[in-house]
Amino acid sequence: MHNLYQTLAPVLAGALALALTGCASTPGLQIKEVGSFHLGGKQVTLSGLPEKELRFTPSSPPIKVNPNGEFEAEQMYVQYVLQSAPKAKHPLLLWHGGGLAGVTFETKPDGGAGWQMDFLNAGHDVYVSDAVERGRASWARYPEIFSSEPFFRTKKEGWELFRIGPTWDTEPAKRVAYPGAQFPTAAYDQFAKQFVPRWATNNAPTQAAYDALVQKVCPCVIVVHSQGSTFAFEAARKAPQLVKAVVAVEPSGALDATKVDITGLKAVPHLFVWGDNLDKNATWQSILPPLRRFADALKSQGGLVDTIDLPAQGIQGNSHMLMMDKNSSQVAALIQAWLARQGLMR
Amino acid sequence: MHNLYQTLAPVLAGALALALTGCASTPGLQIKEVGSFHLGGKQVTLSGLPEKELRFTPSSPPIKVNPNGEFEAEQMYVQYVLQSAPKAKHPLLLWHGGGLAGVTFETKPDGGAGWQMDFLNAGHDVYVSDAVERGRASWARYPEIFSSEPFFRTKKEGWELFRIGPTWDTEPAKRVAYPGAQFPTAAYDQFAKQFVPRWATNNAPTQAAYDALVQKVCPCVIVVHSQGSTFAFEAARKAPQLVKAVVAVEPSGALDATKVDITGLKAVPHLFVWGDNLDKNATWQSILPPLRRFADALKSQGGLVDTIDLPAQGIQGNSHMLMMDKNSSQVAALIQAWLARQGLMR
Fold first, then answer.
1. What is the least distance, in Å, from the CA of B118 to any CA of chain A?
2. What is the pTM of this model?
3. What is the third-level CATH fold of A33-39+74-341?
4. How far is A300 from chain B (nearest CA, A)?
5. Where along chain A do its domains lie?
6. Partner residue facing B30 (CB), from A30, A61, A117
7. Over the Cα atoms of chain B, what is R_g?
8. Cβ contact (<8 Å) for A28 and B31?
9. A107-133, pLDDT tens digit by residue?
C-alpha cells in the first residue's frame, strides 16, 4: 500500500499542477464582451440646400448627392469592455475632457497602456465614451444643426492649458516643460493627434446624452476629466441613487450651489484629483474658485469630498493629463484605493 | 493495494475535474490588452485667422482663443483587442466603408454583438480602425487644411445605397424594405447615429495612413467593407508579403489593372463577399464592372479570387451592411471558414 501511494502521489501532484498551470498558462483578463452603442440624439431634417456631385471612389462614377433630408444628430458614443467576473460592484464610466474623446483613457501617447487597462486590471467593467460632437459620436452640419462653428485646439494651447510646460515652440527641442514634468513630452505631437474639434454651444444635448447613459448602464462610478466634470456633477445630482461615486480628475467646471439644489449629492462620495503647477497658470487660477465653492457647499451639506493633491503628497510634476503622465498607473492606483475605501469593490 | 487505488482514484479524478472546471468556470475571452493608437498624418500650421472668445464651461470665465498655430492632421485611429493565445496566425484588421467609422464592426444597431466579437471568438487578434477624417481619427479645418467641405449622408441615401429597401420614408412605418430583408430595419435610425461625415478629397492621406498601419502591425489579414476596398487592395499591392489575405465585403472600388501593376497581388488570396439585391440598384450596377475587371485581372495573373455570393448560396435578403444583418454571425462564419481554408489559423 505504501508503494502504491508513493506511485500515485506524484501523479496526483502532477494533476494538481496541471490544474494550476493549465489556467495560469492563459494569463490576461477574462472578457465577456467588447462592444459599443450610440445613445441620445434625435432626428433632424434639412431642406433647401443645393445638390452636389461627388466622386467617392476613384474607379466609380460620380454620384449626385442631395444634402437635404433626415439625419441623426446629438447622439453620443460608448464602448465597453465587460469582464466575466468583475471585482467591482458597479461598472466604471470614463468621461473625457474638452477637445478630446474617449481615446484619452484608452492609450498613452508614448504607447503605454491607458487607464482603461489599469481599471480593467483592477477588476472593473469599463465604459469609455465620446461625448456629443466628439470622435465616434459624430458631429452635425453647422450652422444648420449645430448652431456655432467648431474650435480646433492648437498644440500651443494644449501645451500651456494642460500644464505640460510654460513655453511652447514649434520646434520640439525648444519647448520648455515644467521641471520634472511627468508628461512624456517627446510624445506631445503624438498626443496632439488625439485632439478633436469642439463646439461651445452643445452643452444641453451633451448633458442629455450623459443623463441617458447613466439611466442605461448605472448604478456606476464616474471618473471624469476636465471639461467633462460639469456633466458628471450634474448627472450625479439628477440621479444620486445611480451614481455611486464621482472621481473628478482635474475638473474644470463645477455646479453653482447658489443656483441649483445639490442636497442629493451628499449621498455621492466625491474625489478631486489634482496635478502639479496649478499656481503657475492664470487660466487654472480662474477655474479653481468655483470648484472650491462647490466642494465647500457639498461638505457643508454633509457630503463626502476627498482630495488627492499629488504635489502635496510628494508626487511632483503631474500635468493636467494625469492619465497620460509617466506615473499614470501610480495615480490610477491612488484612485483605485479610494474606490476600495468607499466599499465599491466586491 | 487495490483498496488504496480505489481510494485514490476518485481523488485523482477530482483533481483532473478541477483542472478542467477551474478553467471552464471563468468563461469568455482571455485578453492580453485592449488599447489604441493614432498613426500617419503631419503637422500643419495655420496663420492669419481672427481671434475668438469662447466660454467652454458655464461656470468658468470666457477664454480668448487664437485659431492660428500648429495642428496634427490626416492621422488615423486604430483600436485593438489582443488575445493571450490567439488561434489565428496573424491579426485581423477591420477597415470600414464610406461615411462610417470602425463602429461598423463593433456593434449591431439592434444591440447584437458585432463582427469584432465574432472574429475575437474565432481566435483572432482584432484591430478596428477609423480612417483619416472619420470618428476618432478626427478631422481638420476646411478649406484651410482639408481642401473641400464634408458630405453628410442622409438616412434616405443610406437606406437605398446600402440596399436595405427600395423606398425610403421619414415615417418608419412607411419605409419599404426588400422582401425577407436581413437588415434589422426597426434599428435603422439607431444605425444612422453611426454615420460620420466624409470628404471626397482625402484619398491620398487615407491611403498613406493605411499603408503605415500595414507596416506597423502586419503580417495580417484585412477584412474591408465598401469604400475601404480600394485602400485595402492598394495596401496589399504595395506590401503583398505583409497582407496574407484580403476579404472584400461588398467592395465599392477596385484597382485598374490597366493602370497599375497588380502582379504582386497573386501572392495574396482574395475573397469577395456579396449580399442580395445588387441587381435592383442602379448605383451598384455602375459600381460592379470595375470590380469584375479587377477580379478577372487578378485571376488571369494567377491570383486566387474566391467569391461568396450569398443569394447564389441560398442565403437571401442580405443588405450592404452584412455585419449588421440579422444573420451577421452566419456570414462571419463563412468568412472564417475561408480564412481557415487558406491556412491562416494555427
1. 10
2. 0.92
3. Rossmann fold (3.40.50)
4. 20
5. 33-39+74-341
6. A30
7. 24
8. yes
9. 999 999 999 999 999 999 999 999 999
